[in-house]
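agent> fetching stored inputs for the NAI docking request
agent> found them:
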Amino acid sequence: MTEAIVYERIGDIAVLSAQNPPVNALGIDVRRGLLAGIERAENEGARAVLIYGEGRTYFAGADIREFGQPMQDPGLPDLCNRIEAAQLLVVSSLHGAALGGGLEVALSSHYRIAVPSAKMGLPEVNLGIMPGAGGTQRLPRIAGTETALEMITTGRHVAAAEAFDKGVIDRIAEGSPREIGLTYTRELLEQNAPRRPLCDMSAPEPVDFDAIYDKVLARGRGQLSPAIAVRAVQAACEAPSFLDGVRRERELFMELMESEQRQGLIHAFFSERAVSKLPELADVMPRDVISMGVIGGGTMGAGIATAALLSDLAVVLIERDDQAAAVARGRIEDNLKGALKRGKIDQAQFDAMMSDPLTLATDYAALSKADLVVEAVFEDMDVKREVFAALDANCKPGAILASNTSYLDINEIAAATSRPTDVIGLHFFSPAHVMKLLEVVVADQTAPDVVATGFALGKRLKKTSVRSGVCDGFIGNRIMNSYRKAADYMVLDGASPYQIDKVMTGFGFAMGPFAVADLAGLDIGWAARKRRAPTRDPKERVVCFSDMLCEAGDFGQKTGKGFYVYEKGKRGGAPNPQVAEYIERDQRDQGVTPQVFANDEVLRRYMCAMVNEAAKVVGEGIARRPLDVDMVLLFGYGFPRFWGGPLKWADLQGLDGILKDIRRYAKEDAFFWQPAPLLEELVADGRSFDDLNNAGQ
Ligand code: 3HC
Ligand code: NAI
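agent> prediction call returned; pasting C-alpha cells
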C-alpha cells in the first residue's frame, strides 16, 4: 500500500481514501494504491469498497505532469477496467472536483454519490487530449450520447444537481464525502444492491456524428481535440463491443497525446498558474484594498470601475465635470446591464452596485479614503503628471497610485509625486471588466508590497496578472506594434490586408490584425504614428495607406468604414474597395514593386516578427520569463491557446529555423529585422525558451 491511498476496514467495507494533495491527481502512487486496495479488499472478503478523496477534492484527473513521460503500470485505463470488474460493490463519494480521469474512476465504480457543491466533467479537450480511460465509452452509456458529446467536447464542469438529473451520479447528500459515502454504501449492502458495471450496458444511440464533427471542428478554430473526441464517442455507439470502443478511444487518445496542440495547451495550463507566482514576493504582504479610486470614466475607467464593483470593491470615480461624470455613470450602468443579461449578477446585485459602493465626483478630496487609485485619463504625459500631482496632494499616506497608461513611462509619471515607491502601472485591456489580462508594470522605485498589492488586486478581479518592466508599450503593446508593422510592410510589398487577416484567423486568432485595428479604432494608431514621427529613425520604413484611410475620416467600425465596410446589423464587414487604391498609391509614391506572398510566408513573417520582439522583451528583462510573454499574448491579444503562446510556438517550430528566416528577411530590411540577441544565444547554445522557463529565469 502506498501513502497516497490509505486502506482502512470498517466492518464489511474497505475504505480507500486518497491523500495526494493538492488535488489528488491520479499519479502513479495513487494508481498503484487504488489497484492494491481493490485487490486487498477482495482477498480479505470485504463486501464493498468506498473510494473518496481527503482534502479539498476527489480526483481532479490524471497527473498532468506525467504526460510525455514513459507510462508506468498500472495505466489509468487498466485501473478503471479493474475497478469496474471488481467482484464486490464499488462506491465513489465525490466532493470538490471529479474531473477527467477522476470522473473516469467514478464512472468505473458501480455507484456514485456526491456532495451538492461537487463539480464533475471531462475537461481533457482543454489540454489538447480527450478522455483516455473509458470516459468516452462509459459516459454516453449512462448519460446518453448527446449529453456525453456536449460534456466531452466543451469540457464543461457540471454541478452535482445537473449531473444527478443527467444520471451521471446516483445520489446527492450533505456531509463529508467519507460520512455520506459510508452511509450510502451500508444502505446498498443492506439492500443487497447488485454490482452495476457500465461496460455491461448496451451501446448508446448513434447521432449524426459527421455533422457534429464538422460543427465542433469549426467552433474550435483549428483546435483538434474536441473534434477527435467526437469520433471516440462514435465508437461507443458503433464498435462491436465495449472493449473495441475502449481500444479505439486509446488510439485516438495517443494520437492527441503526440500532438503539438497537447504541448501548447498543457504549457498554457501550467503557465497561467506560474505567471503570477513571483519568488521575490513570496514573503511580502500586500496592502489592504477595500476602497478603490478611478480617475477618468471613459472606455477604460468605466470598465475598471465595473470590474471593481463586480468584485465587491467600493469605487470613487473622478471625472472632469458633472456632465462627464454622468456619462461615466451611464457607461458603468451599461457594463453592469451586460453582466446582468449574461447572468453574472442578478437584479438585486445590479441595484446594489449602482448605489452604495459607487460614488461619482469631480473633486479629488473624495479620494481621501481610497486605498488604491487607478488613473485612466487621456494618453498624454502632461495630463497624467497633473493628475498624479493632484493624487499626491489628496490621497492618504500608503495609498497606491496606479496608471493604466498603454505606453507612457511610469517612472516619469511617478516623478510627478513625492511618493514614487507607491506608484505602479496597472495596465488593463479593453473591455476591462471582461478581458482577463492585467499587466503589473513595475517602475524603478515601486515598493515590493505595492507590486504584491497589484497582483492581489488582479486575483480579486479574476485577472491573469503578469509582471512587466517599463518600456514603450510594456510587454503586450510593444510586441503587438512589431507584428503589426510586419503586417503593414507585407501589405506595402504586395500582400492584401484581407489575405493576412485570413491567414491569421486560419492560424487560430479570432480576428486578423486589420479587423482588430478597425475594432480598436484606426485613429489610435494614427495618433501614435504622429506622436512618434519626430523621433523616428530615418532608416525605418514608413507605411502611409492607414494614414490615408484616417485622413478620409474612416476610423474603422466606429465610423462604419476602415479596412472593411460595416453594415448596421451585420456581423463583420466586407473589404473596403478604397483600401486597394490607397495601397497602390502608397506603393507608387515609395517606388515599391508589389510581390506575391504565399500564405505560409505571410504566417512565417508575422510570427517571426512576434517571436523576435518577444525574445527582445525577455532578453531585456521586461518580461521575467518566456512564459510571461506567452500569457500576455494569450489573455490580452487572442493568441490561439492551443499553440501555448508565441514562444511556445517558436520552440515547437525550432528556434534555428526562425532565426534563419529573420536573417533572410534582414537582407530586405536590416532595420526592422534585427535578430534578438537572446534568440541568437539560445540557438548557439541549442537551448529553447522552455529551458529558460524551467530554469526559472
Ligand atoms: N495534475 C497535476 N497537477 C495538477 C492537476 C493535475 N490534473 N490539476 C491541478 N494541478 C495542480 C496545479 O498545477 C496547481 O499546482 P501549483 O500549486 O504548483 O500551481 C495545484 O494543483 C492546484 O491547482 P489550481 O491552482 O488550479 O487549484 P484550483 O482550486 O483553482 O482548481 C482544479 C482546482 C479545478 C482541479 C484545477 O486545478 C483543474 O482544473 N485541474 C485540471 C483538471 C483536469 O484537466 N483534469 C483532467 C486531466 S487529464 C486526464 O485526466 C486524462 C485522462 O482522461 C486519462
Ligand atoms: P477615453 O478618452 O475613453 O477616456 C478618458 C477619460 O478621462 C474621459 O472620460 C475624460 O473626460 C477623462 N479625463 C481626462 N482628463 C481628466 C482629468 N484630469 N481628471 C478626470 N478625468 C479626466 O480614454 P480611454 O480609452 O479610456 O483611455 C484611458 C487610458 O487608458 C489611456 O491612458 C489609454 O492609453 C489607456 N488604455 C486604453 C485602452 C483602450 O483600449 N482604450 C486599453 C488600455 C489602456
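agent> quick read of the result: Residues 22-23, 25, 60-65, 76, 97, 99-101, 104, 123-124, 127, 131-133, 135, 273 surround 3-hydroxybutanoyl-coenzyme A (ligand 1) (CB under 6 Å).
agent> awaiting further instructions
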